[in-house]
Amino acid sequence: MITSGETEQLKSQLKQATDAAQIDILLVLLEKLVATSDDEARIYTDRLELLVAKTGSILYKSWVLYYNAAIAHMSGDNDLALLLADQALAGFEQMNENPGIMKALKLMGLAYDIMGRYPESMAVRSRYLAVAESTGDKAYIADALIELGNIYYRQDQSTEAYGYYDKALQLARETGDKERIATVYSNKGNCYRKQGRYAEALNDQLSALRLREEIGDQRGMAMSQMNIGLMYETAGHHAEAMENYHGAVRILSQLNDKKSLASTYNNMGNVLSREGKFAEGRKYHQDALRLRIEIGDVMGQSTAYSCLGLGYHHEGLHEKALENMRASLKIDEEIGHAYGAAINLINIANVLLDQGDVPSALTQTNKALEINPDKGDKPFLSGAYESLVSIYKAMGDYASALNYLEMKDEMIKKIQEEQVSKELAQLSLRHELEQQEKELDFEKREKELTQNLLLNILPAKVAAELKEKGSAAARHFGDVTVLFTDFKGFTIVSERLTPQQLVDELHTCFSAFDEIMQKHGIEKIKTVGDAYLAVSGLPQANPNHASDVIRTAIAIRDFMIQRKLETRDLGLETFEIRIGIHSGSVVAGIVGTKKFAYDIWGDTVNTAARMEQNSEAGKINISETTYQLVKDNFTCEYRGEIEAKNKGKLKMYFVR
Question: 72-94: per-residue pLDDT in tens?
Answer without folding.
Answer: 887 778 888 899 999 999 999 99
